[in-house]
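Duplicate of #3305? Posting structure anyway:
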């Protein structure tokens, strides 16, 4: 680790699984935090099983990415011996992330209240579907469920086809992961000022509620429910996705008058300037724009719009985005990370700092790779580690 990373003084114990917590601690580790991932070799993590698998490394792309920069220890938390190890670790790792259902850590004897007795400065962050209170706190949920309950899906998609399924996890990433990072770093600042740690309760459903933005906040004021394709940003106006003659797509977001004028001139539809970005003519003018874009290929429109500063971009596939787009390439958003016997490509940490360093020390490792090293540092000798293995504490 460099001596110039922003979070090198933080030590984090990570009990999370799947995507929200692991992505949160990945970003913190990239910013220099010392993260120890607590997992179990005998417990399935669905995300580790998904996607591409590297035969040389015998690990999935997800595990190599989400466990980047993290040391890993395998513990069977159902054993007392493993719980004792956690209680020793918490004296040093004074920030904890967990992502079990509410009450699980309490049943294990590893609740905030219990661990606070060992380390009064403990910052303890719980990420869950619906939070640690309320009538549905113990209900299971995944990303599409959070989007559904939040109201967000009620205005997505088209009138004819209904809500649209996204190929990314909005609640997990923009919700659980990023909000937990903000909460933990705010708690670190509070601790620096007061000497006190605290408990942080992150509900992924809660975090999505404000993502309803303009129409959601308007509803709270006027009580009027909107429908799909009924306002500026969900398909009524020209802010939309358009199909080209060769079945490719471009996005048009020319909302402001200066951008709209450039668009109208480029597509030779002068009526757009007067009608505005959300024409109130029953969709006739938008239909004209749809037909115009459909009349030529993506290559034609790329050439037409290339130097036009009007908020218009083509829909790129992964190859075009990750490897060919000049802006993304210049920002170095794909990096090569050391995985031991080879280097692998991964997403970069997206925050750019002028002073502190972002670190890519190593790709994720197999579960429990650092177990012996961590236990040795805690004072366990070879015989004691062997006994822990025999009683199943390190499974």
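Output from current build:
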């Amino acid at each position: 680790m460099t001596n110039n990373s922003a979070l090198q003084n933080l030590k984090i114990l990570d009990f999370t699984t799947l995507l929200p917590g692991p992505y949160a601690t990945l970003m913190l580790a990239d910013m220099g935090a010392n993260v120890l991932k607590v997992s179990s070799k005998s417990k399935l993590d669905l995300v580790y099983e998904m996607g591409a698998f590297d035969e040389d490394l015998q690990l999935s792309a997800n595990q190599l990415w989400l466990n980047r920069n993290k040391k890993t220890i395998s513990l069977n938390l159902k054993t007392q011996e493993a719980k004792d190890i956690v209680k020793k670790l918490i004296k040093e790792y004074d920030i904890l992330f967990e992502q079990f259902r509410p009450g699980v850590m309490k049943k294990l004897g590893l609740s905030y209240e219990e661990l606070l007795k060992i380390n009064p400065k403990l910052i303890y962050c719980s990420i869950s579907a619906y939070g640690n209170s309320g009538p549905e706190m113990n209900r299971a949920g995944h990303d599409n469920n959070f989007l559904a309950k939040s109201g967000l899906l009620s205005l997505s998609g088209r009138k004819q086809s209904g809500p649209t399924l996204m190929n990314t996890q909005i609640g997990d990433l923009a919700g659980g992961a990023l909000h937990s990072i903000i909460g933990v770093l705010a708690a670190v600042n509070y601790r620096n000022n007061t000497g006190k740690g605290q408990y942080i309760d992150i509900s992924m459903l809660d975090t999505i509620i404000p993502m309803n933005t303009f129409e959601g906040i308007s509803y709270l004021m006027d009580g009027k429910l909107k429908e799909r394709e009924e306002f500026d940003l969900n398909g009524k106006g020209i802010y939309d996705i358009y199909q080209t003659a060769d079945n490719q797509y471009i996005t048009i977001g020319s909302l402001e008058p200066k951008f709209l004028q450039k668009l109208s001139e480029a597509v030779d539809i002068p009526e757009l300037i007067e009608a505005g970005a959300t024409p109130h003519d029953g969709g006739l003018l938008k239909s004209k724009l749809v037909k115009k874009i459909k009349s030529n290929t993506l290559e034609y429109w790329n050439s037409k719009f290339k130097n036009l500063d009007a908020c218009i971009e083509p829909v790129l596939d992964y190859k075009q985005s990750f490897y060919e787009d000049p802006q993304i390439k210049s920002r170095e958003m794909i990096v090569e990370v050391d995985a031991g016997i080879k280097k692998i490509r991964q997403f970069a940490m997206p925050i750019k700092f002028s002073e502190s360093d972002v670190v890519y020390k190593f790709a994720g490792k197999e579960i429990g790779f650092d177990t012996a090293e961590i236990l040795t540092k805690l004072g366990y000798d070879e015989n004691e580690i062997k006994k822990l293995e025999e009683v199943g504490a390190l499974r």
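Confirmed duplicate; merging threads. The longest helix spans residues 170-194. The chain is about 40% helix and 15% strand.
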